[in-house]
Each structure stands twice: as C-alpha cells, then as structure tokens.
Amino acid sequence: MTAPTLDQLPDHAEALPSLPEVVNYLIRALNDDNANLETLAHHINSDPAIVARLLAAANSVTAGLSKRVHSAGQAFLLLGADRIANIILASALIYRYDTHTSGFNARMLWQHSLGVATCARVLAEQTGVDPDLAFTSGLLHDIGQLLMHTASPSHFLQALDRHLNEDIPLFVAERSVFGYDHCDAGRILATAWKLPTDIIDAIAAHHEPDGFGSEIGNLIHVSECLSHALDLGELPSNRVPDLSELACANLGLSWPKFAAHFAEIEARFDDFRVSLGI
User: Could you report the per-residue pLDDT of 214-250, keeping only the tens digit for each?
Assistant: First the structure.
C-alpha cells in the first residue's frame, strides 16, 4: 500500500478531533485587541476537563500551603493571564491528542513541543516578537506528525524507524517514505483548522526557514534547535538540527545571547511540566 499523497491529507484531517472551543478562542485572541479575561473564563468553564487541569496546575503552585484553589477565578488571580493561557492551551492539546500506539508516543511529542514553546517565548521576549504567538506556534509546530500518523500509521512508523536507526532528521526520513514531511502536513492541518497565517508559516518553516522569510518561522526554527540542544523533553536519540545562521541574523540572535537564558528556559520548562503533570 502506498502512502497518502499531500493532496489526500485534508481528507484525513477530518479524522482528528477538532480543536477545543477554548483553544480556538485563545488562538483568535492573538489577533484580537478586544479579547478579555471574562470571555476567556467563560470558555474555560464550558470545558470541565480543562477546568480540572487548570485547578491542578494552580494547586501545584500552592503545594504546602493550607489554602487550596477551587475555581478558575482563583486560579486566574494566582497565576496571571499569560501563564493561564499557556497552561490551558498546552493541557487542552496534550490531553485531547494523547495518541499512544506501538512505536508512536504523542505524549513525548507534546513534551518536545512544550520545550520548543518555552524556548520560543523566552527568545520572543528578547527579540520583540509577540510572546503569546511564539508560545502557541512552538506548541503547534509539529502537529503535522499527528496528521501523518493518522493518515498512515504504518508509513509514519517506517519513517520513525529510519530516523532512529539511520541517524537522519525525521523530516528527511518522512520525505523518503511519504514524499513530503511533517512541515508540509502541519501546514495542511493548520489550514484545515483555520489557524492564523503566522502560525501556519511557523509550522511550515520550522526546519528550513531560509526560503520563507518569516520572522515567526525563524524564531520557531531557532527554538527547535535550542530545545534539542538543551534536551528538553528527553527525546530518544536526541539530535540537534542544523541551525540557520540567516535565521539567527534576521532575529539579531547569537549563541552568547542564547546561553544567557539557558537556566531561565530550563526552569520555565520544568515549571510547565509540573503544572501540566507530564
């Protein structure tokens, strides 16, 4: 059986669950100056699973204290809007798309994505890129892997096997099996989900940014490399991708600038993992 073509992927995108309502709101809010916490709280309270994760995250912060957090409103006051949004987005994606079959562990994929998102937020704060857009793009950058696995698990596992056993980048192994990679597939899925253009660009460009000329694509590419360098997510056979010097130059970043934030990135990543229970 041959692998599905890129043109056939939109049909397989329908097999994946749609994004939760609260995630759709958060992503739309990136480009909406009128977005507000009251509306966000309304969306949160409409999803009991997300409320449960949010309370767990808030109570992990207050561990050892006598006062417990019992409502989304209390969590907002304790954690702050930015952190709340990041926790909601990450927990909704991780627990909604937690596919675990032989050879493919989506939880590991999300741990890596959280590492990239954490790097992206810290670097965005240093470069003038919108930190919320950076975090969201980092968290979603590898969603193409979900679509490729859904479309043809056997072919995707074949690509994973080549990636691990031949010590080649996953996107190269995917191209040898499918004729395209998870950046292409991610662009298809992000378009089907009607995500903002900036996020689609970040997903499409994160391995080979030089041909795209996208600021957010450059940032997610650098964050991907940095996450691997710090081994965030503890991927098996971790391999640091080739870093685009052009992407770094366009962002005004250098390795000494990265190094100055290593400890902060690792601390934030550990904090997120504890908050999300992963």
Answer: 999 999 999 999 999 999 987 777 788 899 999 999 9
Select 101-278's CATH number: 1.10.3860.10, 3.40.190.10, 1.10.3210.10, 2.60.40.1120.
1.10.3210.10
Q: What is the pLDDT of residues 32-70, one digit of tens each?
A: 767 676 777 777 777 787 788 788 877 776 665 557 778
Among 63, 62, 29, 60, which residue's Cα sits nearest to residue 44? 29
Distance linking the first and last C-alpha atoms of the chain: 36
Q: What tokens were used for 261?
A: 């934030």
**Residue 188: which H helix or E strand, with range?**
helix 182-192
Contacts of the segment 64-67: beta carbons below 8 A, 24+ positions apart:
none
Torsion of CA 271, 199, 216, 117, to 10 degrees: 10
The greatest distance separating any two alpha carbons of the chain, rounded to the nearest whole angstrom, comes to 59
Comma-separated ranges of CATH 1.10.3210.10 domains in the chain: 101-278
d(Cα 217, Cα 133) in Å, to the nearest integer?
11
Are 156 and 102 in contact, with CB atoms under 8 Å apart?
Answer: no
Task: Please give the full DSSP string across 44-109, using - where no structure is assigned.
Answer: HHT-HHHHHHHHHHHHHHTTTSSPPP-SHHHHHHHH-HHHHHHHHHHHHHHHHS--EETTEEHHHH
AA identity, residue 263: A
